[in-house]
Amino acid sequence: MNTKASTKINARAVIRESAVFLVLLVIIVMFSCLSPQFFKFSNFVTILRQVSILAIVSVGMTVVLISGGIDLSVGSIVSVVSVLTSMAAVNLGLPAGAAIITGLLIGMLMGLLNGTLITATGMPPMIGTLATQIAFRGLGFIVCDGASIYHLPESFKVFGQGYAGPIPVPVIIMAVVLLLSAFVLGKTYIGRHFYAVGSNAEAARLCGLDTKRIQILAYTVCGFLSAVGGIIMTSRVNSGQPKAGDGYEMDVLTACVVGGISINGGEGKVRHIIVGVLIIGVLSNGLTIVGVNEYWQQVAKGIILAAAVAFDSIQKKNKA
Amino acid sequence: MEQYILELKKITKKYPGVTALDQVSLGLKKGEVHALMGENGAGKSTMIKVISGAITPDEGEIVVEGEAYAHMTPALSKKLGIEVIYQEFNLLPNLSVAENMFMGERVGGKILADFGQMERRAAEVFERMKIDINPKTLVRDLSVAYMQMVEIAKSIVKNVKILIMDEPTAPLTSDEVDILLELVEKLKQDGVTIVYVSHRMDEIYRVADRLSVFRDGKWISTNLVEEISRHDLVCEMVGREITETYPERRKCKGETILEVRNLTGKGAKNISFDLKKGEILGLAGLVGAGRTETARMIFGADPIESGSIFMKGKEITIKSPRDAVKNGICLVPEDRKQHGVILSLSIRDNITLPIVKAISKLGIVDRKREDGILEQQKDDLRIKTPSFSQKAGNLSGGNQQKVVLSKWLASDAQVLIFDEPTRGIDVGAKQEIYFLMNRLVEAGKAIIMISSEMEELIGMSDRIIVLYEGEQKGEIEKEQFSQELIMERASNIVR
Q1: Amino acid B494: pLDDT
Q2: CA distance B5 to chain A (A)
């Protein structure tokens, strides 16, 4: 088979990926020159631990983006799960395992609600999940009366603060999620269905796919992974916080888009998430080490996001 | 020596893996209708894009009224009076006809737009065109034929000198085609040069002065229409002899497989018919007669209000395409690019999409089995592609249609509904699709075929049902087939 032609056709995607990878490399080299503290094994482990929650929730967002939607409620799901999981453990006295299962189920339920709302009414996903973002955030405050929940059981700490040898537990969870999602998206029929629905929902429906069910599944997966993120965050800060995930959806979207996942649906791979998340993570970590304050960090992230999207847009224009 | 209004000199355009245009030279004379012919992938669309400035050629130059350019840009070509009417319309559906016609032009004062003036000027153009369109109508409320008229009117407003029409009659019914061709004549008399791309020979011979044939990105010939016979023309296009247009098939009618009873829904009412194994049933009618609506209802794409469907004698409930596919009914939709293939996905993903779940074990796609299916489909249908990971959007129209077909052939469909299966497809690929349809019915499948091309319908069907404004106007057996009879029924003329 003539593979030469097909590789040429994919050249654009390759350039895009190499460019993002190059940016990551440049940032790493830059910080390594600027500070001796940066280029250390222990610091890289720290970066991985810092990005683990972002990466896990980004996988959820990616699944939704690939299937043609968007989920602005992930931050609120993180908050609600943080509060409810803590309350299950503290107020109800459930063992850590049971509390976590409760949290995961609640996350899935919220995702299910997102998906059902959007597919049943046909409303734009951005609006539907904006509505649930607001409502979920409110619910998070209502259930805990706006107060943080402390005194989590000791066994709960392991998910956010534990180590397996030199590797933090959140990093292991992140690795498992990334591997599993790469497998599902790349090798299973469910993955194919996600891409098909996101590329052209009507054509997919006319192929006999149950497009609504597929979309609902995507939101449910996203809710589940947001819950995983929420639980790790709760364990990390050792308390349930109704503000745990405030504004998190924007960080997640930034990571996805910088990595190269299309917000128009049907495109994106797990390796894109990894690169996107790492760029954001390395940037925050490096800038902090060098002593740049939080506000300038935000400016830097904004520029990176604009640059990534500009790059895509210009390439698309040149292709025509 | 005659002066050309536009001349292409040794234009070459290469895409990865394919040379779309290879040293093509062509001259257009002022005020002529110049037909471009060739199979899909012959390079016609690429050439149109070169002329309109949508793409930049790798080599060659374009001479417009004596001025030489290395390439066009969309703005430059418009300035020079070149307008293109593409198969996909370039209209804003939520704006009025008049607003669409004057899009990009400032009508009225510095701040306020003068809608009254727009409407008056639009009405004048329509009067000249002898077309009855209210300029205040929203474009989305127009039929396809009228949208096309608006496109043409739009170019007239812009003082078009060279009008390029890409398959203008593909979506039109025969009456509408007449109107369009008369309009082309009128434009020609006004001195407009027209480039006319079409697969329909009748039209070419009616309207064109000269025609140029392309094959595989190369210019083959340019002739005066009266100097080339249809037979020779087809041979030049395909580069091989085609003996007969509609291949014979052996008689193979079997038992009844599908029964439709009093099917009623949006756009069609009380449709009843039987379909036998090994049979091709034609659905005839004008645009809007309810053919596509009937097909979409049977396939579950649109809701059924009342009526019933029986498959092999058992009543089945069809609420979605999923139900239809499960029962072995499939649809090759009219709108190939929107509903048939998923352009941004690979050929692999497209072909196995309906069956990817079935060929998975524990959710994991069986790549070996998938490769086998793909190879078989590629060989069977002669899909031209370097690789299955090629995006469907990079294929020519004919090959895209083959992808749609192989999608259903790979699944176990018993009843296949073809909605305009050869629209916008070249002669060679059409033949292949006819042969394929024959092979399918010979293998005991049943086909319902919708086509606006009367010859095709008569040539391929065993039986034809005619629809008129959503109602069934009789069934015609093969022995009685005649264009006149079908047209009468389709126009509801009762003798």
Answers
A1: 60
A2: 27
CB within 8 Å: A207 and B390: no
Nearest CB neighbour to A189, from listed B55, B345, B357: B357
Query: Order of strands, edge to edge, in the sheet holding B210-215?
Result: B82-85, B162-166, B193-197, B33-37, B210-215, B218-224
Lowest mean pLDDT among A7-21, A161-175, B91-105, B126-140: A7-21
Query: How many CA atoms lie within 13 Å of B127's alpha carbon, on the beta-carbon side?
Result: 6
pLDDT along chain A (320 residues), means of 10: 44 75 91 91 94 97 97 97 95 93 97 97 96 95 92 90 93 97 96 96 94 97 98 94 92 93 90 94 93 91 87 70
What is the rounded distance in angstroms from the CA atom of residue A282 to the CA atom of residue A278?
6
What distance in Å separates residue B284's CA from the closest CA in chain A? 23
- Nearest CB among B338, B365, B407 relative to A192 is that of B365
The architecture in CATH of the region B4-238 reads 3-Layer(aba) Sandwich (3.40)
Do B386 and A1 count as a contact with CB atoms less than 8 A apart?
A: yes
Which residues on chain B are in Cβ contact (under 8 Å) with A267? 344
A4 to chain B: closest CA residue = B17
- Whole-number percent of chain B with pLDDT over 70: 96
Q: CATH: 3.40.190.10, 3.20.20.240, 3.40.50.300, 3.90.1150.10. Which one for B256-490? A: 3.40.50.300
Q: Which of B16, B339, B356 sits opposite A192 (nearest CB)?
A: B356
Using an 8 Å Cβ cutoff, are B419 and B450 in contact?
Answer: yes
Which range marks the domain in which residue A124 is found? 52-246+261-267
Q: Is the ipTM of this complex over 0.95?
A: no
User: Cβ distance B309 to B318 under 8 Å?
Assistant: yes
**Which pTM does this prediction carry?**
0.76
